[in-house]
Design a protein that fits this description.
Elements: H1 8-19, H2 37-43, H3 65-69, E1 76-82, H4 87-96, H5 103-112, H6 116-122, E2 125-128, H7 133-139, H8 143-151, E3 161-163, H9 175-181, E4 186-188, E5 200-208, H10 212-223, E6 228-236
Parallel strand pairs: 1-6, 2-5, 5-6
Antiparallel strand pairs: 3-4
Helix pairs in contact: 5-8
């Protein structure tokens, strides 16, 4: 069963609705879950990825050259799937078209990815990547928070890491320009910074492209004293193979 909220009448209705058979959104198999097991196995198979930025790598290679040369502020980085068909359309529906029902299937996809479950269990706090207030009003919800409260409801905390300002679009910018664009865009809630000292943190985002946003947020957590930071993303863009 896909994990949907189950508290209150609305949550109960949603939970019952989740049990009803439906078509797979990818192959249209019926009856099925929102994404059937066969499509998950076909389009989100476990692959070898860089331990620092989750970039896809040849089997047996642990770190990409960029992470060896300039280690990111993450101790580990995990991705559930490659940002390729059929996932971009589904993620766009989730993020930009208000289809929050995708949070359940995507959370299940996250938890089924290798090493994600152990990382969540070992963590003290699980944080969503925050949205700036204007973006949050525009979308109506933070998609990363919707994922976090399903994969780790007892450890989820949406108020500890803050987005302090809007930034210009990252698309089309180089990695260096993306990092400059995000300078000062994240902060830890000042009155709660002590809660991060010595703690194991998991930071969750939906899509990772260059890693600039995730790294900028992780750097702020590291400065606040976090002992270990794992980044977990739903989808990772990869260069053409």
């Amino acid at each position: 069963m896909w994990p949907f909220p189950s508290s209150g009448p609305t949550g109960l209705f949603t939970s019952l609705l989740a049990r009803l058979p439906s078509q797979c959104a990818v192959c249209r198999a019926w009856p099925s879950r929102p994404v059937c097991d066969a499509c998950v196995a076909r389009f989100a198979p476990p692959v070898s990825r860089c331990s620092g930025c989750a970039l896809r790598l040849p089997e047996g290679v642990g770190r990409c050259g960029e992470c060896v040369k300039s280690p990111p502020p993450l101790d580990a980085c995990l991705a559930a799937c490659t940002y390729a068909w059929p996932w971009p359309d589904a993620i766009a529906a989730f993020k930009f078209r208000g289809e929050a029902g995708w949070a359940g299937p995507f959370a299940t996809l996250l938890r089924s990815a290798p090493w994600v479950e152990p990382a969540l269990e070992a963590s003290d706090i699980v944080l969503p990547m925050p949205l700036a207030p204007g973006r949050l009003r525009e979308r109506g919800f933070n998609q990363s928070h919707e994922l976090v409260r399903r994969v780790a409801p007892s450890k989820a905390d949406a108020g500890l890491l803050l987005r302090t300002r809007e930034t210009t679009a990252q698309s089309g910018l180089s990695r260096a320009d993306r990092l400059r664009n995000l300078r000062g865009a994240f902060a830890v809630e000042p009155l709660r910074a002590h809660e991060l000292r010595g703690r194991r943190i998991v930071l969750v985002d939906d899509v990772m492209t260059s890693g600039a946003s995730l790294f900028a947020a992780a750097g702020v957590l590291r400065e606040a004293g976090a002992a270990h930071i794992t980044g977990i993303v739903l989808a990772r863009t990869d260069p053409p193979r």
